[in-house]
Design brief:
- This protein has helices at about 75, 80-90, 110-120, 140, 160-165, 165-175, 190-200, 215-235, 240-245, and strands spanning about 1-5, 15-20, 30-35, 75-80, 95-100, 125-130, 145-150, 180-185, 210, 235-240.
- Helix 2 packs parallel to helix 3 (about 110-120) and helix 7 (about 190-200) crosses helix 8.
- By secondary structure, it is of the alpha/beta class.
- It has a domain at about 1-175: TIM Barrel (Alpha-Beta Barrel).
- The protein has nine helices and ten strands.
- It binds iron/sulfur cluster.
- Iron/sulfur cluster binds near residues 103 and 153.
- Iron/sulfur cluster binds near residues 38, 40 and 153.
Length: about 250
Amino acid sequence: MLLNVARDDEGAPEIFRSIQGEGRNCGRQRTFIRLSGCNLHCVWCDTAYTWNWRGTDFHHERDAPGAPHKFDRAKETVQLSSEEAATRVLALPSEGLVITGGEPLVQRAALPALIDAIKAGAPSMLIEIETNGSIAPPPTLVERVDLFMVSPKLAHSGNEPGVALRPEALGAYASLPSAMFKFVARSPADVEEAAVLAQSYGIGAERIYVMPEGSDSAALSRRSRELVPAIVRHGVNYSPRLHVDLFGQKRGV
Ligand code: SF4
């Protein structure tokens, strides 16, 4: 089964080694593979090149009058077998792999073969999946994945709540010890919304990270200062967004 992988700025498959810029493993060296395709359409998505194809009518905040923020699907995507993808991952030695997107679980049927091919070459490799939490993880992934970093999308993302926040999927992640939660926030009200949502699923504060939305360093700093009082009040964790802070919108970093 082929994997749809995003391309980096040079057109190569977006498989790279860097530091994890977000969440529980922030600062740790990781290899990343960015998969293409997403079932949601967040208006501020910083990886819209994985889903916002020409010919679609999804709205994005970067749309300009007469010039919507669209991408050429054929140019932005490359198909790799799990063996090809694993070879590229294993060429970048690291203690952990982050499978990100897009939404990796759109391709959930292909992920066990990818993980098995990687584990065959690096049995101790830690496997993390970054997901929007709208698709419940199948048992074939639960048994292979060390960490699900689940990022449910709040109202400010522009998605329909019934599409972004699916009780059966969120309930499945909430019951998994290997799942942590990362909420993107633009305002203190978003922290409140995240806290209420998490409480309704019995997700403890120690499993929650709140991360500012923003596409440059100045926006992240300003938002962080606005969010921290609400983060402290709710006893949850703060997550920076180091890769955006350091590299802006560059791919493959
Ligand atoms: S879920 Fe993630 S990849 Fe999908 S549109 Fe939202 S921010 Fe982008």
